[in-house]
Protein: tRNA-(Ms[2]io[6]A)-hydroxylase
Amino acid sequence: MLGLKLKTDPRWVTIVESNIEEILTDHAWCEQKAATNIITIITYNSEHEELVTDLLEIAKEELEHFQMVHNIIKERGLKLGRERKDHYVNELFKFMKKDGSRNDSFIDRLLFSAMIEARSCERFKVLSQNIEDKKLAEFYRELMISEAGHYTTFLKFARKYTEKVDVDKRWAEWLEFEGELITNYGKSETVHG
Structure:
């Protein structure tokens, strides 16, 4: 369904399990950044009432996920570490088109967001199916479902609001780029690492 070119090797979960505090901290900050990204999209595209309404709900969900991860961190006697740079997301950001019309940039921002949600969904699925910790397995299964909904919402709005961009063609370019990019990741205990 996601169309990703490369699946995450389940052995990545062994790396994650070696440092649960790190994956949880990274995950918490990923949720915060997702909410911030959504607020940015709303800020620059507030003329689209349906988009604002739907994305406000997703932004609230992302903050709830941040809180859920933070609660897990506290329950386990761990600490929420400092915010981490997400090199994967930074590389995707560089691929995003920032020239062209305002609408072109808007559509690419939606596709950028869909790409992050798609990979996060896939990673959460791998975690839910392979992590030994049953509580975390269930948690990541629930988040996988949520991320899938976010992914489809961003794609829906890209298709709805495009003026000139061939969304399916551009999405295929995103998938190709991400397929090459992700070969550099899956080696650290971070959501996208």
